[in-house]
Structure formats: C-alpha cells, structure tokens
Design brief:
0% strand; single chain; mainly alpha; 7 helices
C-alpha cells in the first residue's frame, strides 16, 4: 500500500500544479479544472485528473502514468508503508503512513512523481 499511496495523488496534483505554474498555457476552464484537481489530489481522489485525460488523452495519460510510476517506484524503494487502503497527502498527515522518516519518504516520492507529471505535461 505504501507505493500505491505515493502514486494515487500524482495525477491530479500534477495536472493542478501544471495549471498554476504556467497559467498562460491553459484556458479558463482548464485553470478551474486544475484547482479542483489539486484539491482532490490532496485528499487522495485521483479522479481529479480525468477531465484533463478527456480533453487531451495522449498527453495527459502518458504524463500521469510516468509520474505515478516514478512515485510508486520511489515509495517502494524507500519502503514506505501505509496502513490505510487509501492514498494522498491526507493519509500521511493523519498517520496512516508512520510518522517520522516514513512520512518524509512518502512526501519525497509523491513530490518527485508530481514534479515529473507537471513538467512533462507543461513541456
């Protein structure tokens, strides 16, 4: 579950952050979708990325898969654990990921995946 918890928020957070970082590349509707995706990603709801995948499936799906794979691989390599059948930063904050170094590893893995997703999607 640790790898899964790291990968779950990557797609919506990545899409949301992409709309914040370079807002001039997105129309008003996409910017609004980005806000919703970011909020959903924070609580582990990966469906926030679906509107982006519907609008631009080739780019969005590839970006999301690559970024989520990075996060999951890093989480697995660092031995992240998750006691809840859920993911997203909310599980780390509420203690499903053991506090301490595990929480740090969780956020490193998730942040790396989000960065990869956002950067690939932007460029």
């Amino acid at each position: 579950m640790g790898s899964l918890a790291c990968a779950i928020p990557v797609a919506p957070l990545g899409m949301g952050i992409a709309t914040f970082v370079l807002p001039n590349k997105f129309d008003k509707e996409a910017k609004n979708m980005g806000v919703g995706a970011f909020i959903m990603g924070c609580i582990g709801i990966s469906e926030g990325a679906i509107p982006f995948a519907i609008r631009d499936p080739r780019r969005a799906i590839v970006c999301n898969v690559i970024g989520s794979a990075v996060a999951g691989a890093l989480g697995g390599a660092m031995g992240v654990q998750d006691a809840a059948a859920h993911g997203g930063p909310i599980v780390a904050v509420l203690g499903a990921v053991p506090y301490g170094v595990q929480t740090l590893y969780y956020f490193i893995a998730a942040a790396a995946g989000v960065a990869v997703t956002s950067l690939i999607y932007i460029f």
